[in-house]
Specification:
Order of helices and strands: HHHHHHHHEHHEEHEEHEHHEEEE
CATH class of the largest domain: Alpha Beta
Number of strands: 10
Number of helices: 14
Number of domains: 3
Shape: elongated
CATH topology of the largest domain: Alpha-Beta Plaits
Strand content: 15-25%
Structural class: alpha+beta
Radius of gyration: 27 Å
CATH superfamily of the largest domain: Nucleotide cyclase, GGDEF domain
CATH architecture of the largest domain: 2-Layer Sandwich
Helix content: 40-55%
Distance between the termini: 69 Å
Length: about 375
């Protein structure tokens, strides 16, 4: 049966009697694509958007908001939705009806989940499945290989996705409950760092697309590994730039120097510059916003090649936590006093050198500090 905008086709309780899914020949779609869709979704097409919304007990307007937030294209009234789509609508609407989420928050949940998983799915298809589905024998087509490969991988990838999500959710929840007060759960004091490849625009003109893609992937992978290993959080990657955050200044500083050192030791990588700022940051949907983030970005743009610039707030925090001396003169005085008393001198990880003050549009006059390792006079570290 067909359903028009007046709601005909629904029974007395508002539920819709779904029709069988069309054959591939009728829809004009690739048969393998339809088979893969059925395998991955675990259900056949049974509903138009209107029917799915009615079956879930959700208004068409709200259903459309949820679907668009999840990143799904408008399909008119094509019969392309499944029982899983109905269940997802019912769950989101149920959270709103129960008062656990506001409608706006439910839309944010849909948007954050959709954006994150869309990128993951694209990566898996482009990089992972594409390689695995190369025909293993002459004469075989990729079509003949794809379905059984997906059939084998799907349950394993699904379980792994849920596992990683639970681990990340546990870590994030732990950070939130340790916040000093309710306001700090949203507006928190964090160290925010940008790392930017120097001369990337010029590289795009000289390198082949495949080479450029490999360079970007290597940069993002290296940065992600270093940030995670040192206890930071990778917020996002932008091709030639990564944005990360850390709960304390020392962690952010260590990550920045490791990034510069690692890239400097890789002859295939361009030079890197990093900027870090410390202060109040607003977090939304896994991203960070505010003047602290803007300042970190500005510091990156003026940082010397293969160097790290930090703002005065981060410098003060490193001094307060005794990760860096207030100055080399202070460090020398402390060393002399410790030697006189027969004690070990303070051990600092980092050194800070004040740079020129300069006006930054929208942020006033800032005083950058050059961050290096303690005792590394050239601002570089050649350790392996």
């Amino acid at each position: 049966m067909s359903v028009d905008d007046t709601g005909s086709g629904a029974d007395g309780d508002g539920r819709v009697d779904p029709e069988p899914a069309p054959d591939a020949a009728d829809s004009g779609e690739d048969p393998l694509a339809l088979r893969l869709e059925g395998l991955i979704l675990g259900a056949e097409r049974r509903y138009t958007p209107f029917q799915a919304a009615r079956s879930a007990g959700v208004s068409m307007e709200l259903a459309s908001r949820f679907w668009r937030a999840m990143g799904f294209a408008d399909i008119g009234q094509a019969k392309a939705l499944t029982e899983a789509d109905v269940l997802a609508l019912r769950r989101l609407a149920g959270l709103v009806e129960a008062g656990l989420l506001s409608e706006a928050m439910a839309v944010q949940v849909a948007r954050s989940t959709g954006q994150t998983t869309a990128r993951l799915a694209e990566w898996q298809i482009d990089s992972f499945l594409e390689g695995l589905t190369e025909p293993p024998e002459p004469g075989m087509t990729r079509t003949e290989v794809t379905y059984p490969i997906v059939e084998l991988l799907l349950p394993e990838l699904q379980e792994f996705l849920v596992y990683v999500w639970r681990r990340q959710l546990a870590a994030s929840a732990g950070r939130v409950v340790q916040a000093a007060d309710d306001e700090e759960m949203v507006d928190r004091r964090l160290a925010v760092g940008f790392a930017d490849l120097v001369g990337f625009t010029r590289l795009t003109r000289r390198m082949e697309e495949e080479e450029l893609g490999e360079l970007v992937e290597a940069f993002e992978t290296t940065a992600a590994d270093l940030v995670a290993a040192r206890g930071g959080r990778l917020i996002k990657t932008l091709g030639d730039e990564v944005l990360y955050a850390a709960d304390d200044a020392g962690t952010a500083a260590e990550i920045a120097l490791l990034l510069v050192e690692t890239m400097a030791n890789d002859e295939t990588m361009p030079e890197l510059r990093v900027g870090i700022a410390f202060g109040t940051v607003t977090t939304r949907m896994g991203d960070v916003f505010g003047s602290t983030v803007n300042l970190a970005s500005r510091l990156t743009s003026i940082a010397p090649r293969d160097a790290v610039l930090v703002d005065s707030a981060l410098a003060e925090e490193l001094i307060r936590t005794q990760d860096a001396p207030a100055s080399e003169a202070v460090a020398a005085e402390e060393a002399a006093a410790a030697e006189k008393a027969g004690e070990d001198p303070p051990s600092y990880r980092f050194a800070l050198q004040p740079m020129w003050q300069r006006p930054v549009r929208g942020l006033g006059v800032v005083e950058p500090w050059l961050l290096t390792r303690r005792g590394d006079e050239n601002g570089r570290n050649d350790r392996p």
